[in-house]
Amino acid sequence: MEIIISSNTSKPIYEQITSQIKAMIMSGELKTGDPIPSMRSLAKSIHVSVITVQKAYEDLQRDGFIETTVGRGSFVSAQNKDFYQEEQQRQAEEHLQAAADIGRSCGIPVEKLMELLQMFYQED
Question: CA 124 to CA 106: how far, in whole Å?
Answer without folding.
Answer: 29
